[in-house]
Structure formats: structure tokens, C-alpha cells
């Protein structure tokens, strides 16, 4: 398995944000959360720059690339207080990462009931030059597309690749998640790996829509290039903010590069 980028610092930042979320709750303004984080960073002697112009790191960075926090000159941290993290939010921090030549960005959305950081890797560094030290344990990216939803997922194994593509698909639907946990069996047979991925995602999408559920984990009992059996684990959903109509074969790619599995899937929305 690959090593997570800056694990100790990431864990520390997540812990500080959990403290803020517990104390202030879900409905403060972004600047209030940022002020609280700044106080804790000082208290814990973590070096940072707030509302930092990334042009100071890279003169070629576009004007106006100002990140909420630069932590120890290693991690970009963005604070949100909104109903959903959107494609624009991912694109924004991806632009910041590429403009600064840094590897890792974290997005914390304090409006969420359960606070969980979104880890975003610089695709300029990792999609083309990934290696055994890359972190793909919770890994997908929303790619630019004029009309539809385009997701690229990564995994050290095919199983991890399929799971991360589920995460990208479900999170893109902006679910309002309920506490009730669910489990569903899934069985898929196809004629090759690409068709298996499309059929698998189509079946998961069907289960999401029919049962009003999202799935964030799967236990595979059988996995080959033509067949999948396993159990999906997730939670009930109150409503979805966005709809996905279908999984398509258009621009479909599934391949292995430098020991890492990657896939690109286009969804009709």
C-alpha cells in the first residue's frame, strides 16, 4: 500500500477542525471557522499563512490564487460552510495546487453533519507521474466537461479503483445522508474489465436511485475482470442535490500505469 502524504500533519489538522466543528457547530460563517482554526494553529505551534497569495510561491501562478491557509509550506487548506462541496470547489483547489506546485490540498466543509476532509492531490504531479508512494486510498477527481460529469478514479488494486469510482459517483450526487445504515448484495458479470466497470456502476446507480441510499464501502467476495460479487455498505439518504441519469461508455478508459490503476468515466447528468 502507498504511504499517505504528510500523515501526521494531516491527522493533526483534522483533529483541530473536529474540535472547531464540535464547539461552533454547523452554521457559522467561513470566516468564523477560519478565525477559530487560526487560534488553534497558533496554540499548537503549527506554522501557517492565512489568505495566502500563491504567487509568492510561484511567480507563474495566476493572479488571485489566494488560499485560505498554507500550512507549513506543505498543505493547502480550504474552509467551506456550504450545503455541498461542488465540482467548482475541487477545481479551485486543483488550480491552487498546480499553481503552487504543492502536492496536497484539504477541503473542510463545516456544514456537514460529520466532518470529513476531502483530500485532493495535484493531478499534474500524480496522474502522470504516480508512484508507489502516492496516496490513493480515498481518491477521485472531478474533471472538466462542458455538459456531463467526468470522473477519474485511482487505486492500487482494481478493487480499490472500483470503490473510489463509487465514492466519486455518489458524492457528486450531493446526498443529504441519514443515520440509518444499509447493506446490499451485488453480482455482476460482463465480457471484459471496461464493461464490468460500467455495468457495476450502472447497478450501483440503480440501487442508489431505487432505495435512496449511498454506498461508501464494499466487501468483494469475488473479483475478476469479468465478474464481481460482494456486499455494498452505506446509509439512507433524505434527498439528492444532483441527479445522474446514466453511466456511459463515451471516453471510457481503464488502465494501469506505474503500478496504479486508473479509470475515467463519463456520466450523463
Model description:
By secondary structure, the chain is α+β, with helices and mostly antiparallel strands. It has 2 domains: 120 residues, Trna Endonuclease, Chain: A, domain 1; 129 residues, Archease domain (Archease, Possible Chaperone, Chain: A, domain 1, 3-Layer(bab) Sandwich), CATH 3.55.10. Helices cover 31% and strands 35% of the residues. The protein is built from 6 helices and 13 strands. The strands form 3 sheets. Strands 1-2-3-4-5 form a 5-stranded mixed sheet, sandwiched between helices. Strands 6, 7, 11, 12 and 13 form a 5-stranded antiparallel sheet that branches. Strands 8-10-9 form a 3-stranded antiparallel sheet. Strand 2 and strand 3 form a beta hairpin. Helix 1 crosses helix 2 and helix 5 packs parallel to helix 6. It is globular and about 55 Å long.
* Widest beta sheet: strand line-up: 1-2-3-4-5
- The level of helicity is 25-40%
Main CATH class of the largest domain: Alpha Beta
Q: How many beta strands in the DSSP annotation?
A: 13
- How many structurally independent domains? 2
* Element-by-element helix/strand order: HHEEEHEEHEEHEHEEEEE
How would you sum up the global shape?
globular
CATH topology of the largest domain: Archease, Possible Chaperone, Chain: A, domain 1
Short structural description:
With 269 residues, the protein is an alpha+beta fold.
Layout of strands and helices, then pairs:
Elements lengths: L6 H18 L5 H14 L4 E6 L12 E6 L3 E6 L6 H14 L3 E6 L8 E4 L1 H4 L13 E4 L5 E7 L2 H14 L3 E15 L3 H19 L1 E11 L3 E14 L5 E2 L5 E5 L2 E9 L1
Parallel strand pairs: 3-4
Antiparallel strand pairs: 1-2, 2-3, 4-5, 6-7, 7-13, 8-10, 9-10, 11-13, 12-13
Helix pairs in contact: 1-2, 5-6
Amino acid at each position: 500500500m502507498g504511504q499517505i502524504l504528510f500523515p501526521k500533519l494531516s491527522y493533526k489538522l483534522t483533529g483541530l477542525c473536529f474540535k472547531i466543528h464540535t464547539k461552533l457547530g454547523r452554521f457559522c460563517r467561513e470566516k468564523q471557522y477560519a478565525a477559530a482554526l487560526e487560534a488553534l494553529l497558533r496554540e499548537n505551534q503549527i506554522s501557517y499563512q492565512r489568505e495566502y497569495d500563491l504567487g509568492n510561491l510561484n511567480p507563474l501562478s495566476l493572479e488571485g490564487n489566494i488560499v485560505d491557509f498554507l500550512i507549513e509550506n506543505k498543505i493547502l487548506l480550504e474552509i467551506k460552510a456550504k450545503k455541498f462541496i461542488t465540482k467548482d470547489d475541487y477545481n479551485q483547489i486543483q488550480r491552487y495546487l498546480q499553481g503552487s506546485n504543492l502536492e496536497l490540498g484539504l477541503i473542510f466543509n463545516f456544514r456537514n453533519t460529520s466532518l470529513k476532509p476531502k483530500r485532493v492531490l495535484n493531478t499534474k504531479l500524480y496522474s502522470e507521474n504516480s508512484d508507489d508512494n502516492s496516496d490513493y486510498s480515498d481518491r477521485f477527481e472531478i474533471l472538466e466537461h462542458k455538459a456531463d460529469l467526468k470522473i477519474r478514479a485511482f487505486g492500487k488494486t482494481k478493487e480499490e479503483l472500483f470503490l473510489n469510482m463509487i465514492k466519486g459517483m455518489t458524492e457528486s450526487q450531493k446526498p443529504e445522508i441519514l443515520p440509518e445504515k444499509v447493506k446490499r448484495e451485488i453480482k455482476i458479470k460482463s465480457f471484459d474489465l471496461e464493461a464490468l466497470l460500467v455495468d457495476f456502476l450502472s447497478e450501483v446507480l440503480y440501487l442508489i436511485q431505487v432505495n435512496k441510499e449511498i454506498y461508501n464501502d464494499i466487501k468483494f467476495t469475488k473479483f475478476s475482470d469479468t465478474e464481481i460479487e460482494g456486499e455494498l455498505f452505506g446509509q439512507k439518504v433524505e434527498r439528492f442535490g444532483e441527479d445522474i441519469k446514466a453511466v456511459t461508455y463515451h471516453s471510457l478508459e481503464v488502465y494501469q500505469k506505474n503500478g496504479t490503476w486508473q479509470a475515467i468515466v463519463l456520466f450523463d447528468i
